[in-house]
């Protein structure tokens, strides 16, 4: 019962907040990337850290946010790499302003790469409220306002696979050229 109510509140927030992309990005001109991911149970997130490193070697400034269903969070030692959990969300599934949102909405990003495979409400809120020009992620039937670029993947695929697919297609886009 509460899950349906939480979903309705989220849908209401969507209507007020959603803004679609004004243009497709040229991957070579993208400077800042916001990466969203599902944190693994150990909170080591080694595949995600490797993806952050890969983007950084391309000259992109990356900020990564992950969510875990656990209450206790292991602090990360990497700059711009954050994990939050159940203690940082309210009853409705929205991240707390002082714990998460104040740090999250501080700066603007060129692109959001949403690598979440679970349909967790806290990550859906972050994706919705992200201060970005363009959103890319997996195709989902649950979002009434989907990402600007969506990739359909099988359920057995993982976040690095989705990342590779997104980057492949983003590199194909040459913005401003007809």
Topology:
Elements: H1 2-17, E1 32-38, H2 46-57, E2 61-67, E3 81-84, H3 97-104, E4 109-114, H4 121-129, E5 132-138, E6 149-151, H5 159-172
Parallel strand pairs: 1-2, 1-4, 2-3, 4-5, 5-6
Describe this structure in words.
- Helix 1 runs parallel beside helix 4.
- A six-stranded parallel sheet has the order 3-2-1-4-5-6, with helices on both faces.
- It has a single domain, classed as Rossmann fold (3-Layer(aba) Sandwich), CATH 3.40.50.
- Helix content is 33%, strand content 19%.
- The radius of gyration is 16 Å and the shape is globular.
- The relative contact order is 0.19.
- With 178 residues, it is an alpha/beta fold.
CATH topology: Rossmann fold
CATH class bucket: Alpha Beta
Oligomeric state as shown = single chain
Rg from alpha-carbon coordinates: 16 Å
Q: How does CATH name the architecture? A: 3-Layer(aba) Sandwich
Distance between the termini: 50 Å
Which terms would index this structure?
single chain, 178 residues, alpha/beta, Rossmann fold, six-stranded parallel sheet, 5 helices, 33% helix, globular
Task: Provide a quick synopsis of the model.
Helices cover 33% and strands 19% of the residues.
């Amino acid at each position: 019962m509460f899950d349906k109510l939480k979903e309705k509140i989220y849908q209401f927030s969507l209507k007020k907040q959603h803004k679609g992309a004004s243009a497709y990005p040229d991957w070579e001109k993208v400077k800042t990337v916001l990466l969203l991911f599902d944190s693994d149970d150990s909170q080591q997130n080694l595949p995600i850290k490797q993806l952050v490193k890969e983007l950084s070697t391309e000259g992109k400034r990356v900020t990564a946010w992950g969510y875990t269903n656990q209450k206790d969070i292991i602090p990360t030692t990497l700059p711009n790499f954050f994990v939050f959990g159940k203690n940082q969300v309210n009853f409705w599934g929205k991240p707390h302003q002082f714990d998460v949102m104040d740090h999250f909405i501080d700066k603007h990003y060129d692109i959001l790469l949403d690598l979440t495979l679970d349909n967790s409400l806290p990550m859906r809120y972050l994706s919705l409220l992200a201060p970005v020009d363009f959103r890319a992620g997996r195709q989902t039937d649950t979002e009434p306002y989907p990402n600007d670029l969506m990739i359909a993947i099988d359920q057995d695929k993982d976040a690095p696979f989705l990342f590779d697919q997104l980057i492949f297609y983003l590199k194909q886009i040459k913005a401003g050229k007809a």
